[in-house]
C-alpha cells in the first residue's frame, strides 16, 4: 500500500439505551464495535453492508461529527480523538464529508455562493473577492455554471445539489473525503456522472476517499479495496478484484449474489439470507452472522471468530473461511 493517510484502530461507538423516569442506562446499541483499517494516500476504500450495519456511524465517528466511545483515529500519525476543539477545527480542513441526501444537506436559506463561502469564513481564509472567485471556480470544476452562485438549493435537481455538496467539501482543499452514500438518492444515469466526476477530482487533487455504499456495483467501479461490515463489525477486507472474484465470508457471498448481472443468459445462484439483521443492542453470542449463515457450525454459535489474514492482503472474520 502507498503511504498511510489515516489509520483506524478498535473504533467503537455505543449509544446508551435509557429507560424510566430517571433515564437510567439499561444497555447499549453497539453501532460500531471494534473496527480497524488503514487507507493509503490517493486510495479509495469502499465500505459496504446492509442498512443498519454501522457504515454511516463509522464515517461520522472518524470525523468526530459524533464522538466515538473508544478507539484511535490517526490522521498522518496524529490521533485526532485526543485533539482539543480548536485543534480539531484546524484538522477539519484536511477531512471533509459528502452526505447522502442532497436535499437535506444544503441550507435552503443560503445561496450557493453563501454555502460554499461558509467554510472559508469559518476558517478565516481569503478576502471576499477571492472567496467569490473560488466559488465560481469550484462550481465550474464540478460541472455547474458559475452563474448559479446566486441561486438557492430549491432551484436545482438532486444531481446538481450533490455536485454543490461535493464543491463545498472541496472548498478547504482537504486530503480525505468521506463519501456517505453520495449517489444513493440519485437516478442511475446521474449516478454514473457523479462517480466519474469523483474519480476525475481524485486524480486532479490527489484525494483519498472512504466511500460508503450499499450498491456493490458502484463500489466495484470506484474502489481499490473493499471493507464489508456486519452488525458494526468487520466481516472481510481485501482488494476489489479479490472480493468480487473470490469472496471468503458467507455474508460477502450473499451480498454479491444479489448484484444484478446485465446479461440475460448468465445465471447466478442467489443466496437468500433468512431472518432479519439482529439488534445491535443485543448481538448474538459467537459470530454475529451465525443466526443467518447458511453454513454455520457449532463453533460459530460459541466463539467470536478472530480477524485474520486468510490470504495475502485478504482478511476475514470467519471460522470456516
Describe the structure.
- 36% of the residues are buried.
- The chain has 321 residues and is an alpha/beta fold.
- The model has no long low-confidence stretch (mean pLDDT 92).
- It has helices at residues 55-62, 85-91, 112-122, 128-141, 158-170, 188-205, 216-222, 240-245, 250-257, 298-302, and strands spanning 4-19, 24-40, 44-48, 70-75, 78-79, 95-98, 176-180, 208-212, 225-230, 233-239, 308-311, 314-316.
- The radius of gyration is 21 Å and the shape is globular.
- The protein has a domain at 4-42 and 49-82 and 217-316: 3-Layer(aba) Sandwich (Rossmann fold).
- The protein contains ten helices and twelve strands.
- Helix 3 crosses helix 4 and helix 4 crosses helix 5.
- The chain has an eight-stranded mixed β-sheet, sandwiched between helices.
- The chain is 30% helix and 25% strand.
List the helices and strands and how they pair.
Elements: E1 4-19, E2 24-40, E3 44-48, H1 55-62, E4 70-75, E5 78-79, H2 85-91, E6 95-98, H3 112-122, H4 128-141, H5 158-170, E7 176-180, H6 188-205, E8 208-212, H7 216-222, E9 225-230, E10 233-239, H8 240-245, H9 250-257, H10 298-302, E11 308-311, E12 314-316
Parallel strand pairs: 3-8, 3-9, 6-7, 7-8
Antiparallel strand pairs: 1-2, 1-4, 4-5, 9-10, 10-12, 11-12
What key attributes describe this structure?
eight-stranded mixed beta sheet, Rossmann fold, 10 helices, 30% helix, alpha/beta
Question: Could you give a short account of the major beta sheet?
Answer: 8 strands, mixed
Assign the CATH superfamily of the domain at 4-42 and 49-82 and 217-316.
P-loop containing nucleotide triphosphate hydrolases
Low-confidence blocks of residues: none
H-E order:
EEEHEEHEHHHEHEHEEHHHEE
Tell me the CATH topology of the domain at 4-42 and 49-82 and 217-316.
Answer: Rossmann fold
Helix content percent band: 25-40%
Amino acid at each position: 500500500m502507498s503511504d498511510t493517510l489515516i489509520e483506524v484502530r478498535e473504533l467503537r461507538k455505543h449509544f446508551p439505551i435509557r429507560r424510566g423516569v430517571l433515564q437510567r442506562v439499561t444497555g447499549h446499541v453497539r453501532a460500531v464495535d471494534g473496527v480497524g483499517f488503514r487507507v493509503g494516500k490517493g486510495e479509495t476504500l469502499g465500505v459496504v453492508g446492509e442498512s443498519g450495519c454501522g457504515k454511516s456511524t463509522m464515517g461520522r465517528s472518524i470525523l468526530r461529527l459524533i464522538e466515538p466511545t473508544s478507539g484511535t483515529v490517526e490522521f498522518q500519525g496524529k490521533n485526532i480523538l485526543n485533539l482539543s476543539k480548536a485543534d480539531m477545527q484546524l484538522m477539519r480542513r484536511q477531512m471533509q464529508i459528502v452526505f447522502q441526501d442532497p436535499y437535506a444537506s444544503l441550507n435552503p436559506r443560503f445561496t450557493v455562493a453563501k454555502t460554499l463561502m461558509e467554510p472559508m469564513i469559518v476558517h478565516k481564509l481569503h478576502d471576499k473577492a477571492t472567496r467569490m472567485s473560488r466559488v465560481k471556480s469550484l462550481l465550474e470544476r464540478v460541472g455547474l455554471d458559475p452563474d448559479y452562485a446566486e441561486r438557492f438549493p430549491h432551484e436545482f435537481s438532486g444531481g446538481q445539489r450533490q455536485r454543490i455538496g461535493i464543491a463545498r467539501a472541496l472548498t478547504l482543499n482537504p486530503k480525505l473525503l468521506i463519501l456517505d452514500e453520495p449517489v444513493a438518492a440519485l437516478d442511475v444515469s446521474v449516478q454514473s456522472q457523479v462517480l466519474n466526476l469523483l474519480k476525475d477530482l481524485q486524480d486532479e487533487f490527489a484525494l483519498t476517499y472512504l466511500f460508503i455504499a450499499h450498491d456493490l456495483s458502484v463500489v466495484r467501479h470506484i474502489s481499490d479495496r473493499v471493507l464489508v461490515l456486519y452488525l458494526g463489525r468487520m466481516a472481510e477486507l481485501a482488494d476489489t478484484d479479490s472480493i468480487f472474484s473470490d469472496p471468503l465470508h458467507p455474508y460477502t457471498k450473499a451480498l454479491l449474489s444479489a448484484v444484478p448481472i446485465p446479461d440475460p443468459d448468465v445465471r447466478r445462484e442467489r443466496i437468500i439470507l433468512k431472518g432479519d439483521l439482529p439488534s445491535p443492542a443485543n448481538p448474538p453470542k459467537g459470530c454475529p452472522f451465525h443466526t443467518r449463515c447458511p453454513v454455520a457450525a457449532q463453533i460459530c454459535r460459541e466463539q467470536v471468530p478472530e480477524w485474520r489474514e486468510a490470504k495475502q492482503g485478504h482478511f476475514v472474520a470467519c471460522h470456516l473461511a
